[in-house]
């Protein structure tokens, strides 16, 4: 199972072509929009709230079903994704007599933060999104992607990361 954690400003629709190709290759995946993206209450969002959401809504249900999971984090989600996966490695769970667990972490142009570190970005709106995110993407795809971007809660840039899973044994 692949748990795909979207970047800031991005929702599952941005990953639909990627997920389609993974499905063709025989992989199953799960993805959900993070609470900090297009939030009705952006001031209460943080790395911690995104991490809790990823852990409780994406990782735990799959792991408790006994599945092994690779967490794929894109950009901003490297921070909360790492925190969410902490302590859920297959190694840790097998040692505790449980099945299922995280078997790998993949960071795609993602932040790899240490505990207590904040993510380096105070900009929560994106100017020139076509050039910033999609400069080498065909026009039709880039236009659709830009039209689907959503605001990102500014507070996620200033809240510290928790303990990351990248230091866990896998």
Describe what you observe in this structure.
With 170 residues, the chain is α/β, with parallel strands linked by helices. 32% of the residues lie in helices and 13% in strands. It contains 6 helices and 4 strands, in the order βαβαβααβαα. The chain has helices spanning 16-24, 47-64, 78-85, 90-95, 129-133, 139-147; strands spanning 2-5, 29-31, 68-74, 101-108. Strands 2-1-3-4 form a 4-stranded parallel beta sheet, with helices on both faces. Helix 1 links the parallel strand 1 (2-5) and strand 2 (29-31). The two termini are 16 Å apart.
SSE topology:
Blueprint: E1 2-5, H1 16-24, E2 29-31, H2 47-64, E3 68-74, H3 78-85, H4 90-95, E4 101-108, H5 129-133, H6 139-147
Parallel strand pairs: 1-2, 1-3, 3-4
Helix pairs in contact: 2-3
Highlighted features:
170 residues; alpha/beta; four-stranded parallel beta sheet; 6 helices; globular
* Total strands: 4
Average pLDDT, all residues: 88
Distance between termini? 16 Å
The string of secondary-structure elements, in order, is EHEHEHHEHH
- Total helices: the number is 6
Proportion of residues in helical segments:
25-40%
Roughly what fraction of the amino acids lie in strands? 5-15%
Enumerate the strands of the largest sheet in spatial order, edge to edge or round the barrel. 2-1-3-4
Main sheet, how many strands, which sense, barrel? 4 strands, parallel
User: What's the Cα radius of gyration?
Assistant: 16 Å
